Structures are given as C-alpha cells and as structure tokens.
Amino acid sequence: MILSRKWLNEFVDLRDVSDKQFNDEMTLSGSKVETIEREGSEIRNVVVGRIVEMVRHENSDHMWVCQIDVGKGAPIQVVTGAQNQKEGDLVIVALDGAVLPGGKTITAGKLRGVDSNGMCCSYQELGMTEHDWPYAAKDGLFILSTDADVMAKNPQPGDEICKVLGYDDSVVEFEITPNRPDCLSVIGLAREASATFERPLKLHTPEVRGCGGSIAEQLDIEIEDGTLCPRYTARMVKNVRIGPSPLWMRERLRASGVRPINNIVDITNYVMLEYGQPMHAFDFSCVEGGKIIVRTAREGESIQTLDGNERKLTTSMLCICDEHKPVCVAGVMGGANSEIVGDTAMVLFESANFNGVSVRRTATALGMRTDASSRYEKGLDPMNTIKAVERACELVEQLGCGEVVDGVMDVIAKDQAETVIRMEPEQVNAFLGTDIPAADMYRYLARVDIFTREKDFPNGPADVIVPSWRGDVQALCDLAEEVARFYGYNNIPNTLTKGETTRGGFTDVQRFERSLGVSCRALGYDEIITYSFISPSYYDKIRMPADSPLRKSLKILNPLGEDTSIMRTTILPSMLEIVTRNYNYRNKSVRLYELGKIYKPRADGLADEPKVLALGAYGDGIDFFSFKGTVEGILREAKVSDVRFDICQDNPAYHPGRCALVYAGDRLLGVFGQIHPLVALGYGIEAEVYAAELSFEALYEVRGGKPEYQPLPKFPAATRDIAVVCAEPVTVGALESCIRDAAGGLLREVTLFDIYRGPGILPGCKSVAFSLVLRADDRSLTSEEADAAMQSIVGALADKLDAHLR
Amino acid sequence: MRQQLEAIRAAAAAAMEKAANAEDLEALRVQYLGKKGELTAMLKQMGKLSAEERPIIGQLANEVRAKLEAAIETRAEQLASKAMAMRLLAETVDVTIPGTPQKLGKQHPMYQVLDEIKDIFIGLGFEVIEDREVELADYNFTKLNVEEGHPAREWSDTFYFTEDSSILLRTQTSPMQIHAMESRPLPIRMIAPGRVYRKDEVDATHSPMFHQIEGMAIDKGITMADLKGTLNTVVRSLYGENTVTRFRPHHFPFTEPSCEMDIQCYKCHGAGCPTCKGEGWIEVLGAGMIHPKVLEGCGIDSTVYSGWAFGFGLERLALGQYKISDLRLIFENDVRFLEQF
Questions:
Q1: Which CATH number fits domain A419-491: 3.40.50.300, 3.90.550.10, 2.60.40.1080, 3.30.56.10?
Q2: B177 CA: distance to closest CA in chain A (Å)
C-alpha cells in the first residue's frame, strides 16, 4: 500500500510529524513502513522563471536566446531549442548546478557560441507524464502560465518548482499483513495513525445532492450466488462529461502510484484508495437489458478485459453480466465491452463485496492480479460498499462531470453479524506478562473503535463490539494484541521463560549424528547440502535397472521442473551431481560427505525418511584403498566391531571389481567403491570417482558403547613375518581369517605388508606377506610357543587355501 | 721437577687448544692423565724426592692434574657446543616453505550456524526435534489455523503429491509444533530445524528447498514477556551481547499476538545504510503467542496452558553471518566455497 502523507493529513493532521518519526511510530504500532520517499527529492535547483526577452540565436535557425527572470535580480540568459514559449510566459528553469531525475546535472556553458546559464524544461524532464499534466503541451516546454491549476497557486519567479507543481509529497510504502485489508486504504491507515499518534480522526460523510430520477426504474440487480457476492451496491450518473480530473486529484493519484486517466476512472481509483473499496464504472449504454446479473461464467464464455486481452472464462469464475454476456470479471477487471470512453454519457458505479478466495483464484487463473483483486482476495468489509459509492457520486458532483440519479441499488445477499467479544483484562495481563490497568486497556481498544456498551471504561471484564472492518479481531487473544500494540510491544517486560525445569539436551541419535560429522571432517571430507528432489533421469544416470524397486519414488504433481520432480530414493545421484559440478569447476581434489534423507514411499502416501551418510571423492591420493580407509576410519570412530567387507559385483552404479558391501556382523551397513566408469563418463568425469552410501540407522544400531579400558601389555611381543604363495582368486581377507582362526589365543595383530606377482611366482599366483604379532598377557612368550603358533598357521594356510610358504 | 711439571701443563694446555673433536681430547687425556700418561709417570718419580720437597711437589702435581682435568672438561664442553652449533646450522630449514597440508574437512556453513543455535537452546534446557518432510496438509496448514482457501495452500506456492492436496512437502517447520504438541508430555521446550519447500524459482535469494528453525515453549503461565526475554537472550548470543532489539506487531495465522523481531543494524547502528536498506533495523525472526485455536486443536487446554513460538530462515541468517551474497552458493557446494568457513 502506497500512501500520500498529504492525503493522510486530510484525515489526521500529522503535518508536524517528520517522515522518520512517522516511519518509526507506525512501524512499531503494526503498520510496517517499507520505504518513505519524498517526491522530487532527486530534483535540485529547478525554479519558476519568467521569460523577459526572447531573440533568435545568431548561429541557429531554430534556437532561441531567452532572458529569464528567476527571482534573483538580473535575468539570466538561457538558450533553448523549444518553440512553444513566448515573452511573459512562466517556464521551468533548471539553473546552473541543477539536478534532474536520473542524476542528470545541468551546468552553464555555451550553445553554438552563446552563453546558456541553465535549461528550460518540459514536464518529462522532471520525470512526469502527460497523465500528470493533461493540459500541457506534449512537445516543448511546460508553460506554467497556461495551466489554470498551477496559476491558482500564484507562482513567482524563483519559486522552487516541486512546491509549485505539488511534487513534494512524502510517499510511504507500507507492508500490510493479509489480516488487515482495511489498511489498504487512506482511511484505514488514518485510523491506525490516529490511534498511534493519539490525534483526532476527521472522517467525512459523503453527501450527494442528486438530480432526481430513480435508479430503480432503469436498473435491476440479481445475485445468483450470495456466497460469492454477499453484497452489490450501485449508483448511476447521467449526462457524463469525460475529461481530465483536477490537479489535486491527479497529484494524489500519482503519489499513490496510480496513473490518472479520466475523471470517471480516476474517481473509481480515488475512492478505492481512500476507502479501500474497489469500484468499477460501466458505460451503462453497453449493459444490455438494463440488468446486472452476478453469476459464475457459463461454459465457453469469454471476455475481452480492459487490458485488451481475450480471456477464456471457466465456470468457477464470478462475473458481472448483463442479460446476455459478461461485462466484467468480478473483482478483477472490467470488460472492454463496457469501458468508459470519451463519449460515455451514462455511468453505472459498482461498489460490491466479493468472496476473497474466489476472486484470488480467478485472478490467479487468468494471470492478472490487479489493485482491486489484491484487495478483494483478503476479504473486505461489506459495510463499506455504500460509503464508497456515495463518495464516488459526491466526487462526480464536485468535479462537475455528471448528474447523479437519485437512489441507491443495494442488494444484500448475505448479512454479516456483529462481532461481540468478552474482554477479560486480567487474562490479557496474564497472557502478556504485563500489569496494565483495565481502564487503560479499554482506552487502547477505543482508539481502534472497539467499544463497550458502557459509558465509562470498565475496571473488569466487559463485552466489546468490534467494528465491521476489523474481521481479524475474533477472540480474546486478538484483543490482547490490540492492547499490546498500543501499550507498546517494547514496553512489555523481558523475562526468561518460567515454569517447570526441563532437562533438554541432545538425544543419543543426535549426538551420534554429530560425531559422524566430526569423523568425516577429521578424515578430510567437506560437508555438502543437496536438494531432496531429483529428476527421474538421475536413476538412469546411475544405471539403475528399469525394474528396480528404488525407481518407485514419490512424485511431485506440480514440480518447478523435471530436475526437481521426484523425491530421491537414493542419495548417490545427488552426491554425483555435486562431485561433477566440482569436477567441472576444475577442483583438483574433492572429498565430500552428506548426511541426508532419502524418501521411501509408504502405503499411506507419506514416506519413510531414513538418513544416509554419503561420501564422494576423486583426485590426489584417492584410490580404492585410501577410500576404504576412510570408510574404515568412520566405522572405527563409531566403535563398530566385527566389520566385514564382501565383494559386490552386481551394483550397476559401481565398478564390479572395485565395490564392496560393508557389514557389521550380519547387519548390512552399506556399499562403497569406485563409481562405474560408464556412470562417471555419463557425468562427464574421466577421473576415478569413489562413493559410499551407509545407512545412518544401521550405523547407529551397531555403534559401540562406552569402551572399557584394556590393560596395556606388560610382556614383550614376538613378531613373525610370513609370505605365502597362493592362487589369484584367494583373497587377502580369506588368508587373514584363516591365519586368525589357526593362530590360537596368542595372535594380536595381522598386518598385510606386501603382495607380489612376477619373477619367481607362477603366473596366476601371487605372494602375500603378513606381519604377525604374538603375545601372551601373563608371560614373555618363548620362541617355542611362537614357533608352534606359526606352524599351525602355516599348516592351516596350506590345507585350507592351498597357500604355501614362499 | 717443578719445571717439568710446568712444562707438561703448558704442553697439555697447548695441545688441548688444538684438539678438534672429542676423540682428540680423549687421546690427550690418555696421553697425560692415563695410567701410562706423562703426568702419571712424573708422579711415579715422587719417591726420589726429599721429605721436604715431596709434599710441595706433591701438591703442585695435584694442582697440575686438577688443572688439566678441568681444562679437558672445559674444552670438551666447548667442543660439544661447537658441534651442536654446526649440527643446528646444517639442519636449518627455510621456515617460510609451506607446511605439508593436513586437510581437515569443513562443516557446511549453514550447519555451523545451525549448530550454534542448537547449542544456545540446549543451554536453555530445550530439546531438538526432527520430523517428516513429506507431510499431511492437515499438519502443515489446517492445524496451524491456515484454513482451506488460504493463498499459501495454492498449488502455485506448495508442492503436492496428491490431487486432493492432502499430502505435500512441508512449507514450514511449524508442523513440527503440532507433532510435538500431539505426542509429547507437557511442558514442552523444543526447537525443530529442518528442510522446507516452496515453489520458488532459484535465484540469488530464493530456492525451492531451504531451511527453517522453529522454537516453542508450552507450559502453565507462559507469557509474551517470556517470549521477548528468551528471544533477546538468544539473539544476543548469536549477534553479540550489545545487540539492540525491537519487537513489531505482525501477523501469522498460528500465533496471536504475533510479532517480528528486528535487531539494530550492526553496521550503521540505526542510522540507515545499505546493509539494512536504509531502515536502521534488520528483521531477524517472526514469533508470537501460540494461537489458542492451535493449542485446542492439539488437545491442550488453552485456559490452563499457554506458549510461545518463533521461526526463522536459516539461509538468511547464514548469509548474513558470513556475508554471502548469493543463496545459490549454499546449494552449489563448490569446495572452494565450502573450505572458506
């Protein structure tokens, strides 16, 4: 809502209140000021001048050299190329050093060899349009002395131009919350300003003389659906004379951000701004059958709206129709078929109340949110229609642009009950944490027209009556807000929340989640945040089989686009997207993690939303085993025991020879490995990319508890190295478990330190070397004991795996 | 003999000066003081001296011996410190050569801010709760006093999974208030952060997915003064002890009275500057007293219990705290960005 402060002053005199103070106090009482701008504040050093003398430029056949009185003693010389001025005219002069809108500066200089100490201006050069100055020449200078409205202000040479042109209003832009449509008007904001500054509100009751006749003889109104149109009020004006509206009205419209058009249209806009009640004016000669029918559109109907667009209407859209056709989309925009034009003679003013949701849906469907629809959609006061139409007719008479036919057509399809609320001052104090006397509370309420039926302000509970325009006030808590607003939110004390002590704190799951993040970061991985929704094509990119159950994803019916249209059932593609982005940015080495949700559709339409720890990496020092080391590091930090890695050759997203499933005992934790080269190439990555997907839930379940201290060894260990030759398919894992199983209780550590293939080893075989640490807790091992253990290991390797000492 | 002793002392002293290392010095010690050393040999001849001379020369010999021993020790120390100095010189490195990188990973800046907030509330005795993102319209809207027909419920603003608009992606963290009220014993003090979704095209200030954090306290006798006091405490922990705040009336369907909280611009201290868009204040969050209708809808007697709630967007807070100019950076996850924090 854009408000002219000059206009506001008509209702609440705040001329002595600075813009800053107005901003602060209105904002703190609930009408949030977004900006305050002074019209013409960009314009500097531009004044009224009188052309004293005007001669042809000696070096030009179209320029004039003018001597202009600018109120500073001797006239100044200004060269102009304009032709519409004559000696004695009052014109606009930008003096040396003047600034015009857009930051354009004017300096003294020579024009074709002749001194020019300023510039004569058009209204366009002051940032205004022909709508602001309909009587002024469209080309050439703005000759002030030809404009009666300007001359009425008796301008003198040297007068500051913005003042003379009335271009010095303070324009305030408010953020009005949707519960306060009443504040989308000058009067609504005047009520708030009056309450805020505790100054009297001067409201005006419109008076219409009328010219006889009877509207009822010429017009019939029928409302088909009272829910969509609770009230329809109309008046009629005959012998209309279309023309520009007067300067004062144009000024206020311009300051309010509305373009002046003609007197009748301007009146509807003026009344909408003043009362917050959208109005519409029909050319009554275009309303066939003298009948207004408020109904929803019929199948196949369409209308050309005032903006010139043909609009297809649907059967849910409310329209104002005559006997045969729609003439207006109710509350949104009028039809071109009944537009006010230059020769309109008979005008029908509509001041109606429409259902807000219906207007909003129609406006959205037609893609045209208008000043009217944005007011209607918030739900307007049905009691306002009469006042508004009366005001419009009063203005018609005041502007002399027509004769108002006697009588008002006012069809009330649905009545509104008066809202009465029990005010409980003690409860309000308990709720706010304040100690405000009851009488003060009633005084605050009275400021916003919420009164009791009693004469004095009561000291205890009492019924209060809420005015019709305050549909947002429905219960005691709403009254508490009104009291708080005028008591001052910032005067309410600050206390720390009292009551029973609560334990608070993180849960075990939350603590575990945090510790996983710490592990990932300690291992050099950066955290990322990815979108939960993906494109279905992402499943193809990770080579997910067409029949994979993971393809069954929750589908957004109204997505922004394909790329964000389904809820991911795997986190891998999200990770690969980010890996790819970093690869494309030529980031050399990247290690990323995310603890994010996947969304598994459930029978009830909702989703199971488990979290998955995803890792992704490529670059320096990243190979299968360093990546596996990271996974192992995370598991070790989580104190997961009995960790096991199984070969995984059938996950199509991963390299079949470099992929493993991770288990803790029998519990599957997830998968990791090198991303399949085909997948990587699909993303445009030529490097080896590694990824892991670990179930958070599973990790949490198998995490270790508080560790118990193990005494440090008191006796020395015996270290033995062993190298065996075995067939290629025998895995290191198998060799290691065989060693562990065969060693008995003395074996403490098995460390792989070499795998050798080449001269000395048969093709198809490999030599695998381990370092073993043997130790007893209660004695120094004898070499016989160590040898015996080694012997049983060597025997088992040979028997079970055909692996023989090298 | 006196001259002989003196000569030995002088010769030994001169030789010691020349000793270049510990080995040379040891050789000298053996040469003079060893069992077969020169001084030892001298002392063996003491028997030939007269009874008067013997103690005098004996004393002299002992003095020479002590002097030689001390000299050896001194020289040894000199040599050791010289050797150490040479070693240190040899081992000297250019300390301006960069260290070998030991890279620690970084937490996403937004979650750093979130953790900070969680820690503040944990300190105030709050719990942190999470809940589903695929949500019932009932929880996201209806139970929060956002009735059918409200603009936020339109398909142009909210992502839906079902034609009847009953299942959606939550547009706010507030449905977690409802879950908490329905499932937890009173009193409740909780914060609830999480992902939320709105149908906004991606640009410098919008994203179809973003994060909010919700907070709520319900108990007997909770007041708006408690809301103000708590939020002031939290905001001062986040923005600094001297932060000036103000509360303005506002509107949310699920709170009444509702308010927005501003902090005085930390750059211009209220004078107005580009950071605060000339207002002198920066809006930080929305809050209010939980609407009695919302409490009653969750089976809480609003004549006995009252509560406050607040909510704000995490992205905007993180962007402000780290002076990040474009929201897209948050979800782009460029490591060159991530590693700055």
A1: 3.30.56.10
A2: 16
